[in-house]
Amino acid sequence: MKISVIIPTYNRKSFLLRAVKSVQAQSAHVSEIIVVDDGSTDGTKELIEHENIEYIYQENKGVSSARNCGIKKAKNEWIAFLDSDDEWEPDKVAHHISCHSEHPTLLASFSDELWIRNDKIVNLKPHQKKEEPSFLNSLRLCKIGTSTFFCSRKIFDKVGDFDEGLQVCEDYDLWLRILLEHDIKFINKKLVRKYAGHKNQLSFESPLIDMYRIDALEKHVSSKHKSEVIHELIYKTTILLKGAQKHHNKDVIEYCEKKLKYYLI
């Protein structure tokens, strides 16, 4: 099984080498490491110029564009993603190879992850625990961390790449598109270390994140799960409306009221 690993990065010089080294240290062979530099200005290129990797620089277009660039450049059938501020446990790839060997028709899998903040393990709340995903149980929250994801490139031929129009929640959007028609197998092992609490983390810095989840959900209002999708859209839009009313955000209030009027017809 030949594997390409795609690492998008933007001004994460202080973390990137740790991520790259964690791929190089895998117990199972990784054929190709692609770092897509999304317009860094912090000396990223000089940091990794002596590493045995494929380095691609592009003007800043966002993480979805960087990942899609990596997908297009990847030479191998199997693709894994690693965010540049995360790292893999040494047997991460080996577990995925074993999983897909046991399930030869499976196109995608993901693992559990360990969250670390200020050098301490973060105990996740019950609703944050990972589980075998389905389209319906993934509507409320994003079930899969991108750094845990492993797939055949055939999956992108079937459902498309990351949506470059979404500033955040591009992972939530992709998982829903995949799960609508395909299985994603859960490997119940903490094979990724995620580090929280530093700057430049989109999911923490982006305001009104539910607006992006709503955009992703609206792609499925005509699907076989129409009623469940509309129910979730009403739920998310109502929460967003309450927050907008609390902060007197007229634009978001208008956005939510217009959406709810349409959903509640």
Brief descriptors of the model:
alpha/beta, 9-stranded mixed sheet, 265 residues, Spore Coat Polysaccharide Biosynthesis Protein SpsA, Chain A
Roughly how many Å is the radius of gyration? Answer: 19 Å
Question: What is the general shape?
Answer: globular
- Taken as a percent bin, the fraction of beta residues is 15-25%
What's the CATH class of the largest domain, please? Alpha Beta
With helices defined by DSSP (H or I, 4 residues minimum), what is the helix count? 10
Could you say how many structural domains there are in total? 2
Question: How is the main sheet built?
Answer: 9 strands, mixed
Distance between the termini: 51 Å
The CATH topology of the largest domain corresponds to Spore Coat Polysaccharide Biosynthesis Protein SpsA, Chain A
> Low-confidence parts lasting 5 or more residues at pLDDT below 50?
none
Mean pLDDT value: 94
Topology pattern, helix = H, strand = E: EHEHEHEEHEEEHHEHHHH
CATH-defined architecture of the largest domain:
Alpha-Beta Complex
The proportion of residues forming helix, as a percent range, comes to 25-40%
Strand segment tally: 9
| Helical/strand content category | alpha/beta
CATH superfamily of the largest domain: Spore Coat Polysaccharide Biosynthesis Protein SpsA, Chain A
Quick structural summary:
Helix content is 39%, strand content 20%. It has 265 residues and is α/β, with parallel strands linked by helices.
Q: How is this structure best described in words?
A:
By secondary structure, the protein is of the alpha/beta class. The chain has two domains: 3-201, Spore Coat Polysaccharide Biosynthesis Protein SpsA, Chain A, CATH 3.90.550; 209-263. The chain has helices at residues 13-24, 44-48, 63-73, 92-102, 154-159, 170-179, 202-205, 209-217, 226-246, 250-263, and strands at residues 3-9, 32-38, 54-58, 78-81, 86-88, 108-117, 120-121, 149-152, 185-196. Strands 1, 2, 3, 4, 5, 6, 7, 8 and 9 form a nine-stranded mixed beta sheet that branches. The chain is globular. The termini are far apart. 35% of the residues are buried. The model has no long low-confidence stretch (mean pLDDT 94).
